[in-house]
Specification:
The structure is a single chain. The chain is α+β, with helices and mostly antiparallel strands. It folds into 4 domains: 2-77, no CATH class; 114-212, no CATH class; 231-292, no CATH class; 302-436. It is built from 4 helices and 21 strands. It has helices at residues 46-73, 80-109, 114-122, 125-129; strands at 2-3, 10-11, 143-159, 162-176, 180-193, 196-212, 231-239, 242-244, 247-259, 263-276, 280-283, 288-296, 302-308, 312-323, 328-338, 346-348, 351-359, 371-376, 381-391, 398-415, 424-436. The strands form 4 sheets. Strands 13, 14, 15, 16, 17, 18, 19, 20 and 21 form a 9-stranded antiparallel sheet that branches.
Amino acid sequence: MIYCENCGKQLENNAAFCAECGHKVGALSPGKPSEGASGKQPVAGMHSAGNAAGTSAKATANTKSASNAASATAPKALSPKNKKTAIIAGACAAAIVVIAIVAFAVMGANPISNDRLRDDVNASNFATTGVVPSNYVNESPYEITDFKVDDQQKSKQNLFGAELECVTATFTGTMSNANFETDFTGEVSYMKENGEWVLFSDPSITSSTTTPLKGVDFIDENTESSDSAVVYSTSDFASTLDGGEGSYTSTATQKVSYDMWFATDTATSTATFAFSETDGWQMQGEAQLSGQATEWKLAGKTFELTDESNYGKVTASLSFSNATSETLDADYVIDYDNKREDKTYYKYHNVDLTGAVTNEPTHEFGQPNFAVSFKDTNNSVAFDCRSNTVSDSNGSAVSYALNTSVETESSYMTSYLVSMDSGNDSYLSFGGNFIEKA
């Protein structure tokens, strides 16, 4: 067995240094005596013993001197506990260096944080309204997803009479709402002011690709009629989304209704739209109507006219018993009450006429008017009627009416100025608004 000459610790075979104290191990083999004094075996006898002892002491001194010199120059081995402590300290130092490098790279290369960029983009105009016009669709809010900051470039620019630090950031993302989905790229610029980064230019889109997610939401962008006499409404709307790969169309249908005081017009409206990334949905041509129908409201209504003067009083009425697009049927009454007395050359007459008339009305679909002409050959009476509305004296309340002219071949006066035998007859004719009877 071999032991350290310095501390006495047992050594491993062939160990060069003591693991305990670091002392250099001498070149001794197990069970072999030292040859440091004479290099020979000691001679028996006192002299030899004395020489051997002196030589041995000298050798020991020389060995200790050499050992101390070796200890001064050779590295001292660490204990396992000291080795573990050194490894932990080295790992911590390396981690601190890595963190410092990463922090420097982030702060130096990207002065604007990703969260700041996302917030500024979300607050921009295009994030609110989108990049495609909302024609023929109901507007809805956009949401930005898959947002990514691609690059940040620093620069120095002469602005406002000073050289300022600037950063231009580029980004990509996807924005969508109920109508469209848009993949976009964009950019935004910042400048450093009083040590803070502030917006220099608002976020803007540099390129985009938009895909419609559904068809249009309506056909008519303005659902209010230009005429107060018409109430316009729609129902049963439906649309399709057709095509793909950058070419999209939408076909829309709806029921339309034009409600007027005398009738209601209904039909099916169909329109075709094409999608453009710059203009959104655009109608192709005009909406086409089919299945037009008119439901008349005149049946059971009576319209009256009263006109009185110093000469006489006219009372007339038209009462509708049936009303369709093919025919309007009405009963009429005409009563003229003469107020003048006969004279030598003039004779005055009352007129009383009753009868029934029928004819087909004329009406343009969706328009707030109609016309009808009646003629009773039995009484030689003709009516020419057009729909009308009449305001009261204050210009507010409205009454529905038939502006009507009436021609008869019934005499209300005979003149004998030319011939006392035959005379010349004047026939009753009048006109005005026949007001709907409440």
